[in-house]
Write a structure and sequence with these properties.
The complex is a heterotrimer of chains A (280), B (152) and C (109). In chain A, 39% of the residues lie in helices and 7% in strands. By secondary structure, chain A is mainly alpha-helical. The chains are: A mainly alpha (280), B alpha+beta (152), C mainly beta (109). The interface between A and B is medium-sized, with 41 and 28 residues. Chain C: It comes from Methylobacterium persicinum.
Amino acid sequence: MPSVPYPLAFAAVAILALAVSPHAQDTSERPAWQEHGIKPQSPDSPFGEVVSGLYFRSKETQAMQADDFNNPGFLAVEQGEDLWSKVDGAAGKSCASCHNEAATAMKGVAAAYPKWNGKLGKPVNLEQRINICRSGALKAEPWAFGSPELTAMTTYIRNQSRGMPVAVKVDGPMTPWFDRGKALYYQRNGQLDLACASCHEKNHGKYLRADFLSQGQSNGFPVYRLRDQRLVPLHERMEGCMQDVRATPYKPLSDEFLALETYVAWRGLGLPVETPAVRN
Amino acid sequence: MISPLNRRQALALGTGAVLATTLSLRAAPALAAKNSTDEAIKAFTGGKEPVKGKVKLELPEIAENGNTVPMTVGVDAPMTKESFVEEVMIVADGNPNPGVIRFHFTPSSVPEANTRIRLAETQNVIAVARMNDGSVFSDVKQVKVTIGGCGG
Amino acid sequence: MADVKPRIKLDKKDVAQGGVIEVKTLVSHTMESGQRKDKDGKTIPRKILNTFICDLNGKTIFSADLESAVSANPYFQFKLKPEESGTLTFTWIDDDGSKIQATEQIKVS
């Protein structure tokens, strides 16, 4: 019998591996996420390079986000734009009554959220800020979390900061919220016993079955998810992650998620706001 | 004299077996349809066997998510009043129903279109184009669809 | 289907005879497939946009028949070779019979 040369035997092992798990092993299809990021802005950052989730996605998904017309997230931007000047509530006002043009008044605003609110003595995120305006100045019913209106308005306002760096403040009164968010980020949860950090810090750039793990950055939220075929706000995504690890999720807009949102924004300090991003 | 296979030879045999599997997976049309795809194609072509070529289907090899898969179909054909692509049918052989979309063209359009489709699992997507003279052409692409990391 | 405003983009609105216009359309719709079940295990009935038509001066020059395997918020990109100036009408027809419509003017010289 002819002897089998080594390279062939080696190829057999490689092909076997491919056949078992085409995704996990196929390096040619793996998105090249390195060197698409920025230098960490804080010496305490856990990352060597801070990279947007965009670069962990396939070329098709990146192409969908690159073209504003192709990007279905713009349906929400347009809905938000309509709502901006729509009179609602007992005061007979719209957002535009106080803020005029969103393009100027809201430029850069969302990049700094969540933000300390002195009156409430706690930070608020953008959804909560919108609802403070609704129940206050507009004398209108606050929008429910996850409602198309609240998500569209959040998307529209965050879109006014597109391209601007995430600039959340975590010092002063925000410090305990940052600390709490950090503790939650490293806390293991659920039957799978995974923390946020287990996937997004220790294993980004690797496959978890078919999923190519990102750094779990929030700069693109609300994001248009290919899976849900609609805009998904950040707290819903966090809820999803917790369900996936078989944990009981915190409630959207809860103090826990607010602390986590603050901390996660800090992990992505300096990343450009991408809202509405397209994700898997 | 037959000697027992040594480790290297066993691995080499393994190579053949695995290669065969891989190749048959790549020869996508060989997989049996899970729905009435074949019937849908026959109804569309009037029983004619489509000729491979002229139609080009562009789909990702691996879908980032099966719920939104970008797809482009194009037909290499002149569009004149005498000769034009009449209709292109897209079917998916692993979805609950074969039908995905049909595009109707005229001499006033270019036989090319892009949309986003849902694929329930790894399967073949087939494009069949029918010219105004009744001739039919096809292309097929296999798209791998997987569920996310935690099953979410 | 309150305030459904389709997004339509033509790469140009003025072409020479024989020239090509690229059209992109995006419309908000859940494209309920009829395959999903609600919390009580009952099948959610199918409700999709089943037809898309692009007319030039009332004559159809491109159209599509959609099935439930088209993703939510249907997006189309296609190319036209219009022979005359006039009105492009884009129509989406829902399973419930309602229509979403929009128009664009083009010039062919």
